[in-house]
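hiii so um. not sure if this is the right channel but i have a protein structure encoded as tokens and i wanna go backwards to a sequence. like what aa goes where. can anyone help
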């Protein structure tokens, strides 16, 4: 929902959202995730205590994860880890931000911020733009710049390319933001678009004018267009977006952009959210088939970037602040990347507090929601730049897999435990285990790895059960949420029998040295 005249977001809705009134900006720019906390126990998380604070016995169940190093999936791409930023973020250039971005291994920074891009005239905020570009350079991230398609022109986009070429290093360029939300489909409007022809064909023809003007200035400019996710709105409604757009622009583009928010505001459900990532492999397969079918000889060069994602499409509530959103992030990133996405960018760095869904059926005790992965410091929130549960989950993903690592097949025989594996050459295998069960712990036996029992491994653990690595006795550990170390626990262990315990609502990363 719209929070103020300068705060915009962008979202992908499923069809049943349109039974009610839709504002111009479907999701707000808002953003944090952790309630103030001093201690972490079995039942207390950085995001707030569980609903049931009384101590209870945790059941430990056996499960097996089989890793198949010979079954290769995608490699972790150079720009895997991205973050959305915005011109309206008054704290974007605060002192702590570069260190936090580097801690997450951020390789791409997107500007100027969701739907605001289609009303943004780059030379009207030149000082802020130069600051943004300097920040990107400082953290060694590639800028993703969204040119103004909705209210701009090819000439304005070309002048921006010329400025960047003269004054800064290279950037990636996307033409507009979520143009399928401009009223073309069922009258649903959140995206500004002054073009008379709002159809996907109209967007494609005008996008070619943008591409021609931009490449006249820089023949090597890397440019992408807005696509949609197959089976997600407005997929299935004529005129079909991807199947109309791609034949027009396919030979001239470098990548397509998709956004993914699997939940609708007011309908959040923890268990359902943690199942949504099971659909990603099918999304990627279908979208890749469209690219292969409609982009001709250029198809092999067209990449897929997920440059906005989070859990709920608007008005975030308590789920956004809880460990559930962190678990979702871990599965979200790993599943897109192992299926070949070239970037996954979280929405967003900072935002503001929303009075979203605080239903008691949702995990945690937060009384607000905030999209930002770092606290904005609004009333009722922790101090500015305090990391959220989603921040620490992002950090765990980055600890698990680095650009250049090779995802390999990992299969769990327990649906509540999601497993991922990646190799670095022949020397090291990393395993990430995500327990989406709020009640039970799992003792995971690893199979398929040729690792001697006396080999050393490093274990990282984060989650609702973080009271010391694999310690479920309820002991307390004190941490300062403003430190760079955070609540992630690290231990050096021997591989032994190849078993590891993953507490409820927690994630574990193992770095294993193959011998």
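sure thing!! here u go:
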């Amino acid at each position: 929902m719209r929070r103020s005249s300068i705060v915009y977001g962008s979202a992908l809705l499923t069809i049943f959202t349109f039974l009610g009134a839709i504002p111009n900006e479907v999701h707000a720019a808002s953003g944090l995730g952790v309630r103030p906390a001093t201690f972490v126990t079995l039942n207390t998380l950085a995001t707030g205590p569980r609903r049931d604070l009384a101590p209870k016995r945790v059941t430990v169940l056996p499960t097996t994860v089989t890793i198949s190093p010979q079954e290769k999936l995608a490699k972790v791409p150079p720009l895997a880890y991205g973050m959305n930023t915005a011109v309206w973020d008054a704290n974007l250039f605060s002192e702590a931000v570069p260190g936090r971005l580097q801690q997450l291994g951020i390789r791409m920074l997107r500007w100027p911020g969701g739907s605001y891009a289609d009303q943004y005239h780059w030379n009207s905020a030149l000082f802020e733009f130069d600051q943004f570009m300097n920040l990107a350079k400082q953290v060694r991230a590639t800028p993703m710049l969204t040119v103004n398609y909705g209210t701009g022109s090819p000439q304005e986009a070309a002048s921006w390319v010329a400025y960047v070429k003269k004054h800064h290093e290279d950037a990636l360029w996307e033409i507009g933001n979520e143009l399928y939300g401009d009223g073309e489909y069922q009258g649903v409007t959140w995206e500004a678009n002054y073009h008379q022809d709002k159809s996907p064909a109209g967007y494609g023809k005008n996008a070619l004018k943008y591409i021609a003007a931009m490449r006249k200035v820089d023949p090597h400019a890397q440019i992408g267009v807005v696509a949609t996710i197959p089976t997600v709105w407005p997929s299935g409604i004529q005129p079909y977006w991807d199947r109309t757009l791609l034949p027009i622009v396919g030979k001239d583009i470098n990548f397509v952009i998709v956004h993914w928010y699997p939940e609708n505001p007011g309908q959040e459900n923890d268990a359902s959210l943690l199942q949504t990532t099971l659909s990603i492999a099918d999304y990627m397969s279908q979208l890749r088939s469209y690219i292969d079918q409609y982009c001709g000889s250029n198809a092999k060069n067209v990449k897929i970037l997920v440059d906005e994602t989070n859990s709920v499409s608007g008005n975030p509530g308590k789920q956004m602040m809880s460990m559930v959103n962190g678990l979702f992030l871990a599965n979200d990133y790993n599943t897109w990347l192992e299926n070949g996405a070239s970037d996954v960018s979280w929405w967003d760095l900072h935002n503001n507090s929303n009075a979203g869904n605080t239903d008691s059926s949702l995990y945690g005790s937060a009384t607000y929601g905030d999209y930002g992965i770092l606290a904005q410091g609004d009333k009722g929130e922790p101090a500015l730049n305090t990391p959220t549960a989603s921040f620490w989950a992002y950090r765990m993903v980055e600890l698990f897999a680095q650009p250049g690592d090779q995802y390999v097949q990992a299969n769990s025989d327990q649906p509540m435990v999601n497993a991922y594996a990646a190799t670095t050459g022949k020397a090291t295998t990393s395993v990430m285990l995500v327990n989406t069960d709020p009640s039970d712990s799992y003792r995971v036996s690893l199979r398929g790895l040729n690792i001697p029992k006396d080999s050393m491994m490093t274990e990282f653990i984060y989650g609702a059960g973080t009271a010391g690595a694999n310690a479920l006795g309820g002991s307390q550990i004190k941490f300062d949420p403003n430190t760079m170390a955070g609540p992630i626990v690290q231990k050096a262990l021997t591989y032994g029998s190849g078993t590891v315990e993953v507490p409820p609502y927690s994630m574990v990363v193992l770095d294993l040295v193959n011998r």
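oh and Confidence is low (pLDDT under 50) at residues 1-55, 467-484.
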